[in-house]
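[User] I wish I could look at a protein chain and see how it folds. I have put the entry right below:
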Amino acid sequence: MHGHLSQDTQVGVPAAVVWDVYGSLELGRLVDKLLPDVAGRVQVIEGDGGVGTIVKVTFPPGSPGSGYMIERFTKVDDENRVKEIEVIEGGYKDLGLDPFRVRFEILEKNSESSIIRSSIEYEVDDKLAEVASHVSIKPLEIVAEAIGKHLSEKKATH
């Protein structure tokens, strides 16, 4: 069984500014700073933010599952503002969703605003459909909203 979830979040800053965060390790730093109790802690294990970078996300206490996931950046396309990540250990992969991928696209709306398109894609055995029903795009939506708010506030103070 194939699963796909997607969410568009409009933010009041230009796409290039949003990509400076999403296209680099800054996303993990800001998640740590802004949302440690929601999205967890992000630790770089290997890499500089480009393809092949490996990060560990440790979920907040009380989160379901293994409590962590390790992700590998499989695509970082600066020209099209697309980043793709595959979970290589922990998280939903440990529950049988394999592969489990996350994709971020930063779309230019106009010179002052953009859209963060967050997507999840996975494969799962039909016998695990119940597990797949718990997959949620909400955490990525919360991250996108928090990043958008942070960048808008930062823009307002400059």
Q: What stands out?
A: The two ends are 48 Å apart (CA to CA). Residues 138-156 form the longest helix (19 residues). DSSP finds five helices and seven strands in the chain. The beta strands are 2-11, 41-46, 54-58, 68-77, 82-90, 100-110, 113-123.
